[in-house]
């Protein structure tokens, strides 16, 4: 079927715009599992390659978890050769067990990055679809997330390029049929032991009964969330830079409390990131604890005789962030310091007790309750304390 067919032409337009958004890469690694999504992506990019002056390399990562996987790898290589495209492949050594999908994803990404580096590719194209985006967003929301989680996967997040993120999975199968491209169905994609598959097979069908275009609606939500996250992150970046004192080791917290909470907490995350904290693993409770302390500091400084005691959070062995009268400081901690937050944690089957008293003040035009100050009997004085 010629590329002028409306279905193919529309998809080509999406892919072309995606390439523009990524800065028009000249060498592109295309990840292909042999399934409909990635096979359609290879076919579309091949149709555009000459007009876009685009060199393509097809990459296949065999997880080595099924007997059929070696045959599928060979089929991907043959299909690439039939189009005159070079291909590369590798086979992973993964052991079944807990966390296999996450481990496979990380190993696959590492292999693709290695291929891209070895072949001087500008970007790595992935075949994620609108259905994948909807599944990811729903899983993030079910587990609990903020704007970043609702943004799910970005269309372009160097080096990852996702040209098909606006197409539902059914569309990629139709594209393969239109272009005469054979593909395989991975049986693990029907294994309802996996949370993503349960979302795909149970949750999304129910939502489609409510809205037949639910994938498009959720993709739109992810786009709006990504736009909002980008704006807030930019605001936080400017606020952090404006408060920085010296070589990124001290920050003023004057008037930090008047910023919207969404900006304030992002400023604090940036500071923790500069301290070497793993932001992916950093618990939200740590940032919330620092934020409460910043608000309590502002409230206590409003008194005439406030006495503030430094407050410390360990980010990683050897580094901590400290809040005192002068602001926030990144400093070295004792070797082997435990990565923790100075906050109470209650685990199932255990009881935790925390004795505090509270003050009430106003920040950013609203009343707040701050359970971080132990007040003396003398009116207007207090000791800043966790």
Automatic annotation (TrEMBL):
Which residues does ATP bind? 33-38
- Name the catalysed reactions: cytidine(34) in tRNA(Ile2) + L-lysine + ATP = lysidine(34) in tRNA(Ile2) + AMP + diphosphate + H(+)
GO cellular component, alphabetical, reads: cytoplasm
GO term, biological process aspect, one: tRNA modification
Identify the main location.
cytoplasm
Cross-referenced Pfam families: ATP_bind_3
Record has Coiled coil as a keyword: no
Domain of life, per UniProt, equals Bacteria
Q: Which GO terms describe its molecular function?
A: ATP binding; tRNA(Ile)-lysidine synthase activity
Kindly give the InterPro entries that the UniProt entry links to this protein.
Answer: Rossmann-like_a/b/a_fold, TilS/TtcA_N, tRNA_Ile_lys_synt, tRNA_Ile_lys_synt_N
Keyword annotations for this protein, in alphabetical order, are:
ATP-binding, Cytoplasm, Ligase, Nucleotide-binding, tRNA processing
The residue ranges of the tRNA(Ile)-lysidine/2-thiocytidine synthase N-terminal domain are 28-201
Subcellular localization(s) per the UniProt record? Cytoplasm
List the EC numbers from the record: 6.3.4.19
Q: Does the keyword Transport apply?
A: no
Which leading EC class covers this enzyme? Answer: ligase
| Entry's free-text remark on domains | The N-terminal region contains the highly conserved SGGXDS motif, predicted to be a P-loop motif involved in ATP binding.
Sorted alphabetically, which NCBIfam families does this protein's record hold?
lysidine_TilS_N (TIGR02432)
**PANTHER family, alphabetized:** TRNA(ILE)-LYSIDINE SYNTHASE-RELATED
Q: Which family does it belong to?
A: Belongs to the tRNA(Ile)-lysidine synthase family.
What this chain does, per the record? Ligates lysine onto the cytidine present at position 34 of the AUA codon-specific tRNA(Ile) that contains the anticodon CAU, in an ATP-dependent manner. Cytidine is converted to lysidine, thus changing the amino acid specificity of the tRNA from methionine to isoleucine.
Name this polypeptide is given: tRNA(Ile)-lysidine synthase
């Amino acid at each position: 079927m010629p590329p002028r067919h409306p279905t193919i032409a529309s998809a080509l337009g999406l892919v072309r715009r995606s390439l523009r958004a990524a800065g028009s890469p000249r060498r592109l690694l295309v990840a292909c599992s042999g399934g409909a999504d990635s096979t359609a992506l290879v076919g579309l990019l091949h149709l555009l390659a000459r007009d876009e002056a685009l060199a393509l390399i097809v990459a296949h990562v065999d997880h080595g978890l099924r007997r059929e996987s070696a045959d599928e790898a060979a089929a991907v290589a043959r299909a690439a050769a039939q189009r005159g495209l070079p291909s590369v492949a590798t086979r992973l050594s993964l052991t079944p067990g807990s966390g296999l999908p996450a481990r496979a994803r990380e190993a696959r990404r590492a292999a693709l990055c290695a291929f891209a580096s070895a072949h001087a590719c500008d970007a790595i194209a992935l075949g994620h679809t609108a259905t994948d985006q909807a599944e990811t967003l729903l899983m993030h929301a079910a587990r609990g997330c903020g704007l970043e989680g609702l943004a799910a996967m970005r269309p372009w997040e160097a080096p990852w390029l996702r040209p098909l993120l606006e197409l539902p999975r059914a569309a990629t199968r139709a594209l393969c049929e239109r272009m005469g491209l054979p593909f395989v169905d991975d049986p693990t994609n029907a294994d309802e032991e996996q949370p993503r598959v349960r979302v795909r097979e149970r949750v999304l069908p129910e939502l489609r009964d409510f809205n037949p275009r639910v994938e498009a609606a959720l993709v739109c939500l992810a786009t709006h969330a990504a736009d909002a996250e980008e704006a807030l992150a930019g605001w936080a970046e400017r606020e952090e830079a404006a408060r920085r004192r010296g070589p990124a080791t001290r920050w003023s917290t004057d008037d930090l409390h008047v910023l919207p909470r969404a900006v304030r907490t992002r400023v604090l995350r940036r500071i923790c990131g500069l301290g070497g904290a793993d932001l992916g693993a950093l618990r939200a409770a740590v940032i919330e604890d620092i934020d409460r302390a910043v608000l309590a500091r502002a409230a206590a400084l409003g008194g005439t005789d406030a006495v503030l005691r430094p407050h410390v959070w360990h980010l990683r062995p050897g580094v901590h962030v400290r809040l005192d009268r002068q602001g926030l400081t990144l400093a070295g901690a004792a070797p082997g310091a435990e990565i923790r937050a100075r906050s109470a944690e209650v685990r199932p089957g255990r009881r935790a007790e925390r004795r505090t008293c509270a003050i009430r003040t106003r920040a950013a035009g609203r009343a707040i309750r701050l359970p971080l100050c132990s007040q003396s009997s003398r009116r207007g004085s207090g000791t800043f304390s966790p």
